[in-house]
């Protein structure tokens, strides 16, 4: 009772999310683009080939592996340093913003105090007359 027009859908034709999807793989040639000739099938019959420990290829592979691991560790350290620097800068900015707000409030308070002194001085002059 399979319906060829209802591919990947549950009963009633609703999508159930079962469709096979090609994985995003940006390394190498996608399987569907490989030309499957006689040489391809011959190579596929053999098991994967790995470098033997102690061989020239193995030693260079280990050097590359160590280099890639070192690069990853250094990149992680750089990322960590940048994150710490960003957090430090944000904290400094917040402290400076707070300090600026306090300075503005003090200036405003000084203006109000001066205005109050002027008004008080004017009042005292009127009272003395």
Automatic annotation (TrEMBL):
Residues 68-115 form a coiled coil. Gene3D superfamilies: 6.10.250.1170. InterPro entries: NOPS (IPR012975). It comes from the Eukaryota. Keywords: Coiled coil. Residues 22-65 form the NOPS domain. This is Non-POU domain-containing octamer-binding protein.
């Amino acid at each position: 009772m399979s319906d060829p027009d209802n591919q990947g859908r549950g009963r009633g034709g609703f999508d159930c999310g079962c469709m096979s999807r090609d994985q995003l793989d940006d390394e190498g040639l996608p399987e569907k683009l490989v030309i499957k000739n006689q040489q391809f099938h011959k190579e596929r019959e053999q098991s994967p080939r790995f470098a033997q420990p102690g061989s020239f290829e193995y030693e260079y592979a280990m050097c590359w592996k160590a280099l890639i691991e070192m690069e990853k560790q250094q990149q992680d350290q750089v990322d960590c340093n940048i994150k710490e620097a960003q957090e430090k800068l944000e904290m400094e900015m917040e402290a400076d913003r707070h300090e600026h707000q306090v300075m503005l409030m003090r200036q405003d308070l000084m203006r109000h105090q001066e205005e109050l002194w002027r008004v008080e001085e004017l009042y005292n002059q009127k009272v003395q007359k």
